[in-house]
């Protein structure tokens, strides 16, 4: 199986297109992760709220524990401090929730920024490459099969006439030479068919 043409001009174009496709995919991934890093910066306030809430809850818990040691009114003093500590824990939970939301948004956007461009690039790049590989391998097998050069010559005769105008036509024309099974004409015509897809005889 041949992945690239044998003729330099077409092979260079194929390599260039492949490199561009790979570079665009790499750029899409790099942009996606750069955007992800920028989005994750939005989670910083959530981390600060979580840290502040945890510290507040810890301090109020400690104060409540200390207040509970006060004789007679210790339990009365501890209740509001415990309620305030629970509120501090609520702030910490809100901070965690904000971080989780930002992380989920970052994941969704990163996935979209990778998948959409990569799928678009693959749809534009891969089918023509696979079609060329299939066509070139088919023609290569045909050229090696018995009577294959006759079919390749016929393919040239029924295709665009551009390449035929560049060669001196045999007496009676190309079609007549093909019908007469002129070996040189068939070789020339089959060579043109292979050259059109970037192959050599």
Taking all residues together, what is the mean pLDDT? 79
Structural class determined from secondary elements:
mainly alpha
The number of distinct structural domains comes to: 2
What is the string of SSEs from the N terminus onward? HHHHHH
How is the quaternary structure best described? single chain
Strand tally is 0
Could you give a short account of the major beta sheet?
none
Distance between the termini: 16 Å
Radius of gyration: 37 Å
Q: Give the % helix.
A: over 70%
Model description:
The chain is built from 6 helices and no strands. The model has no long low-confidence stretch (mean pLDDT about 80). The protein is about 80% helix and about 0% strand. The chain has helices at about 10-40, 45-65, 75-145, 150-160, 175-180, 185-195. α1 packs antiparallel against α3 (about 75-145), α2 (about 45-65) runs antiparallel to α3 (about 75-145) and α4 crosses α6 (about 185-195). It starts with 7 loop residues before the first helix and ends in a 5-residue tail after the last helix. With about 200 residues, the protein is mainly α. The chain folds into 2 domains: about 1-135; about 145-200, no CATH class.
């Amino acid at each position: 199986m041949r992945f690239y043409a044998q003729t330099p001009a077409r092979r260079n174009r194929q390599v260039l297109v492949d490199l561009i496709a790979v570079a665009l995919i790499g750029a899409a991934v790099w942009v996606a992760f750069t955007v992800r890093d920028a989005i994750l910066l939005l989670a910083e306030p959530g981390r600060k709220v979580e840290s502040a809430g945890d510290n507040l809850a810890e301090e109020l818990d400690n104060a409540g524990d200390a207040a509970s040691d006060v004789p007679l009114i210790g339990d009365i003093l501890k209740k509001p401090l415990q309620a305030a500590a629970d509120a501090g824990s609520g702030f910490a939970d809100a901070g965690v929730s904000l971080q989780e939301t930002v992380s989920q948004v970052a994941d969704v956007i990163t996935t979209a920024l990778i998948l959409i461009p990569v799928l678009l690039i693959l749809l534009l790049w891969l089918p023509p490459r696979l079609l060329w590989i299939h066509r070139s391998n088919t023609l290569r097998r045909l050229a090696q099969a018995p009577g294959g050069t006759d079919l390749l010559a016929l393919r040239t005769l029924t295709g665009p006439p551009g390449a035929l105008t560049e060669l001196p036509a045999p007496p009676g024309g190309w079609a007549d030479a093909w019908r007469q099974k002129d070996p040189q004409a068939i070789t020339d015509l089959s060579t043109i068919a292979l050259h059109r897809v970037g192959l050599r005889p």
